[in-house]
Amino acid sequence: MRVVAERALNRLRFAVLYPGRRLRLLGARKLQGVTGSKVFCIGRNKTGTTSLQTFFSTAGFRVAPQWQGERLIHQSSFSPDDNFWRWIDRYEVFQDAPFSWTWFLPLLISRYPDALYILSTRDEEEWLESLINHHYEHLKLPRNASNKELIAKMQTDSYIAVGYMYEAHVKQYGEPTEEPMYGREKLLTAFRQHNSTARALLPETQLLEINIAGSASSSPICEFLGLPSNFSGRMPRENVRRGD
Q1: pLDDT higher than threshold 70 for residue 22
Q2: Cβ atoms within 10 A of the Cβ of 29, count?
Q3: Which strands form 93-95's sheet, in the order they lie side by side?
Q4: Do residues 161 and 102 lie in contact, with contact meaning Cβ atoms separated by under 8 Å?
């Protein structure tokens, strides 16, 4: 209950402060001659995506609610439809799923070729442990759970919608095989491929690659966005244990 109350208080504080932050952002953009390009944070889950969300919200950007994007992509059977793209039109900044999925990158970039993209990265071994630990904790399963147990739990899990977790996993990694659902080599290969795909699809002028854990300041992001230096500060660190 205490955590719920703290979150509610934080939302209230943000609702009070947001108009001022928004006006400050719009004024800075106008002064700097910076356009309101959309910003897509395309780093894989567990690379600091929640910290990026906090930075952009605090700076006054309209940040899309992650759960809405996941719900819409699921409702469209993982094939973005008009409802999904209209939802994107309402916001400025996007992070985590589905923007962290490799298969989605070509669709997104072809739709928004002039947008700005932030690829958050992380030590791959730390990323692997963070991802596996988070998923097993969410499913309430031990690390030695069998594929059969994992599949059953993922198919009945109700995050976003019943079966969403399993369907999203299959969309990213393919149908289950004898290989473990969270097999080390499979996940690391996918992690490397995702980062390589982003680098190959985007020019350097539109892509900022940043290790959130190793960035004490948000100044690289501000410089990339064309924001004045007084927007920079200490980089937020959210969900440090989980690595979001």
Answers
A1: no
A2: 17
A3: 93-95, 39-41, 116-121, 207-211
A4: no
pTM (predicted TM-score): 0.85
Q: Domain extents for the chain?
A: 2-120+189-231
State the Cα–Cα distance between residues 183 and 181, nearest whole angstrom.
Answer: 6
Joined together, the tokens standing for residue 109 give: 């970039």
3's CB contacts (< 8 A; 6+ apart) are none
Helices (H), the chain: 2-32, 49-59, 66-75, 82-89, 105-111, 124-139, 147-156, 164-173, 184-201, 219-225
Residues with Cβ within 8 Å of 218's Cβ and at least 6 positions away in sequence, in order, are: 55, 231, 232, 233, 234, 235, 236
Verify cis geometry, omega within 30 degrees of 0, for the bond prior to 98.
yes
Question: pLDDT by residue (tens digit) across 55-73?
Answer: 888 888 889 999 999 999 9
Q: How far apart are CA 224 and CA 244, in angstroms?
A: 22
Closest C-alpha to 118, from 182, 21, 51, 163: 51
DSSP-derived secondary structure for 44-91: PTTSSHHHHHHHHHHHT--BPPHHHHHHHHHHTTTS--HHHHHHHHT-
How far is Cα 186 from Cα 169, in angstroms, rounded to an integer?
A: 12
